[in-house]
Amino acid sequence: MAIDVSVVMATYRRPTTLIDAITSILDQKGVRVEVMVVDDCPDGSAQSAVVGLADRRVRYVRNPKPSNGKPALARNVGWPLTTGEIIHFADDDDVVPPDLYRDAVDEFARSPKVGVLFGRIEAFGDPSEALERDKNLFERSARRAARLQRLNSSWAYTSHLLFLELLFLGGSSLVRRRVVTELGGLPSRTEIMEDLDFLTRAVRKFGVKYMDRVSLYYRVWPSRMHSQKDLKGALIRSYSRIHEEYRRDFGAIDFYTLKLAARTVLRFL
């Protein structure tokens, strides 16, 4: 039978949270799912955990060339091996909320011209300053997304993604297969924020819609990204690269118009 949602999950030495993430996917009701786990660890850290699930909906493949912290490269190994018309690039330490995929399939059917869907993010984890900070960030993001949806403009969303505070994540969004195909897969040219690089282009070219429901339970803990020594520098360099590539591909007029919108109208939404 045809697959409704294909989930591509890159993983690296997280067998416990990986199983939690996969279980939340297999528990989705009213849809047919497949999970492609791409092990980015040369030792095959996830193989025994995935095999132990004994579920035909879950497949395992080892990345032949470990990416050394570039999950887009691992995901690009996995997505061509799937068949669903909707793709979710899920992380191995997050959890998919109940009934998300059913609601997303229905929403894509109602919005045939939209290429990207996303919803609210809820942070969870041990009590910490980081958890409270992320909760506040995601609450602000949800309020902004609801206001942007009333504008119904892919330009407005793109402007926000390029120049303003985080709006959504790769794991909180689902995309049509044609979006990934036409963009040539996921870019890996930035140090971090590869999902932002991809989503900016996907939203600009294929449109986006906000679903007023939770689309991601986001686990807050010390990750490789949060613990890297030069996080601020990596963010600056990555944003600079994303801006440079966008300006080259979509033109200076488009780029600076979006920048002006972010500094004037959109920052007050």
Summarize the structure in words.
- The protein is an alpha/beta fold.
- It folds into 2 domains: 1-94, Spore Coat Polysaccharide Biosynthesis Protein SpsA, Chain A, CATH 3.90.550.10; 111-269, no CATH class.
- The chain is 47% helix and 19% strand.
- It contains 11 helices and 7 strands.
- A 7-stranded mixed β-sheet has the order 3-2-1-4-6-5-7, sandwiched between helices.
- Strand 2, helix 2 (47-53) and strand 3 form a beta-alpha-beta unit.
- Helix 6 (154-163) runs antiparallel to helix 8 (194-206), helix 6 crosses helix 11 (252-263) and helix 10 crosses helix 11 (252-263).
- The longest helix has 23 residues, at 129-151.
- It is globular.
- The termini are far apart.
- List the strand order in the largest sheet: 3-2-1-4-6-5-7
What is the percentage of strand-forming residues?
15-25%
Coarse structural class: alpha/beta
The number of helical runs is 11
Give me the strand/helix succession.
EHEHEHEHEHHEHHEHHH
Find the count of extended strands (DSSP E, 2+ residues): 7
Could you outline the blueprint of secondary structure elements for this entry?
Layout: E1 5-11, H1 15-26, E2 33-39, H2 47-53, E3 58-62, H3 71-78, E4 86-91, H4 100-110, E5 116-124, H5 129-151, H6 154-163, E6 173-176, H7 177-182, H8 194-206, E7 208-219, H9 224-227, H10 231-250, H11 252-263
Parallel strand pairs: 1-2, 1-4, 2-3, 5-7
Antiparallel strand pairs: 4-6, 5-6
